[in-house]
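User: Run a structure prediction on this.
Assistant: Running it now.
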Amino acid sequence: MVESNDSIIDNYFGAKKFESLRKGSKPGPHHPAHRRIASQHVTDFFKMGLSSVPKDLRSSELIPTRMSSHYPMMNSSFTSKPIVESSQDMEIEPKKLNFDGTKDEKPSQPEPQQPTPKIEEKPYKINLEWKKYLNDDGIISDTWSFQNWDKSSFPGDAQIEKDISRTRTEIPVMKQTEVRKRLRDLAAFYCILNSVDYQQGLCEIIAPFLLLKSTVFRTADCFAYLNSFMRNYFTAILTPKKFGKKNELPHLQTAYKYCDLIIQYHCAELSQLFKMRNIDIRMFATSWIMTLFIQGTPIDFVYEILDQYIQRSDKTFFFYLVVALLKFGEERIFNLANEKEETILLKFLNMNMKNELLTGIDQIRAWFRLADGIKATTPKSFEVALRNLGFMGDNFMSAENWQELLSSAKINILYVFPAEAVNFIIEHTAMTTDERKKFGSCYDREIEFRFLDIRRTKEKGFLPFSVEVPSKVYKDQLLLQKYLTAAASYDKAAHICIMRTNNKDETEGKLAQVFIEQLMLNNKNCVSVLYGGFQGILREVEKRKVNIELFQKESSGFFGAFGRLFG
C-alpha cells in the first residue's frame, strides 16, 4: 500500500531527531514548535591556513592528538533494531540479472538462508549532525522514490547477493534475513536510480546508513541519506562508460593514476620503493578508494570516518587520506621492505596497515588532520585537473573529454596550471593597495613554489621566484650534470615546478624529463611541471590584466642560486 505524501513527510520529519520542513499555519502534533531539539552547529575546525605536514613523518607511533576545541555534535541515538515493514520486508527470490539488461542462461540462486531469530541489539550511540550536511533538495524525492519503487521489477544480482553474505557479519543483526533484504533493496535501488553497475564493496558503504534504521527512521530514510551522501561526497568512480561491448569505469582508472601522482609528489621515496618492488596501487588501495576506508574497519570507527569526511565537503579528500595513511606507516613499510619474504610488505599494505595504525578515535582524527596538512601543501591544480576530467560527476562529458580521461594514464608528473602559478606570484609579491583590494587573498595553499626555468631562450625576462638553468646545459653535458645534482639538493622544502617555454618544444620536454627522473631518484618531494610553460603564464597575465614584473638580470634574486652552489 502506497502511503500519502503527508504520511511520508510525517514519518520522515516527525521524529524528535529531525525538524519538520512542512509549512502551514495550523500547528499540528508534528509542528516544529512541538518537537524542537537542542543542537549545536559543528565547529568548522578545518579553516584556511591549516597546519602543514609535520617535519618528521617517519614515526610509526601514533600519539593521540587532542583537537584544540572538541567540536560539539548532536546527540542522537539511532537504534539498529530491525523493524518489519509490512510486505516490503518480505523475502524476494533473487534471479541473475546483469545491469546491461541481459540475463544469464542459468540464473544463479543464492544459498538458502536459515531463519535467524531476532536479536535485541543494543542501540548504536552515534554522535552525528549529518542533517546539516546531507539534508539537501533531493532528500524528500529520494524518500518518495524508494517507497514507490516496485521491488519485484528487480529480480536480483549475483554480485549483490555475494556481497550481502559477507557484509558486516561481525554484527549479529546484519545476519537477519529481513535486514539482508533491506540491504539488497538499498543496493539495487541505488544502482537503478543512479544508472550505475553494482561494484564489489558498495554494500560496505550502504551498511552504516542501514544500521541507522529505527522505528522513526525508516529504510526509505536510510536510502535518502545514503543517496545524498553519494551525491555530495562520493566521486564519479562508479560511473560506467561503454567501450565497444564492455562497460568500463574510466574514472576509477583515473583515481588509481592520480593516487600514484600524489604519492609521488609527497612521498617520493615510497613511490620509488613501490616501483622497484612492482607494487601497484591497485594491490592495496582499491578497497580504500571504493569504500572510503570503510571495508574492514570496526563500525564505531566507520561513523567517525564518515563524520570527519562529511564535514570537509570535499569529494577528492580520500586522495589526501591515502597519502596520510602511508605517511603514518612509512617507517614500518621501509622496515618490512628489508625482509627477505617480499609478500610480507604487500600483506601489510593490503590487510593489516589500516587496522594496525587506526586503533582509536584519536588516531582517526590525527589521520584526518595530517590529511588536511597534505591538502594544504598540494597544488590546487590537482583538484582542478580531476574536475576537468569529470571526476566530480557534476559536468557533461563530451567525446573529447572521455578521450582526455583515457589518455590521463600517460601522465607521469603532477601539473601546475598557469592560473595557480599567477595566483601564487600575486599573493607573494608586493602589490599596491588597489591591487590588493582587487585580488584579495587569491591563493589558499601553503606552498612556496620555485620555478625551475629550463627555457632555451630567455629574451622576455624571468618570473619572480624562478631559478635559472642556463641555456648552455643543452650543449654541455658536464654542466648539465652539475645542475641536475644542484637541483636534487636545492631547498628540500621548496616545491620545484619545472618551467619550459611551452608544451610543444620537444628538446625542452626531453630535458624536463631528465630533471624529473633525477629528482625522483634523489627522493625529492614536491616536484611538478608548469602546464603551458612560460607562454602559458604570459597568456594568463594578459587575460586577467594583472601586473607581474619580469626581471631582466639573471644574477638577481633566485636566478643566481645555482651559481652560488658552485662558487
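The two ends are 86 Å apart (CA to CA).
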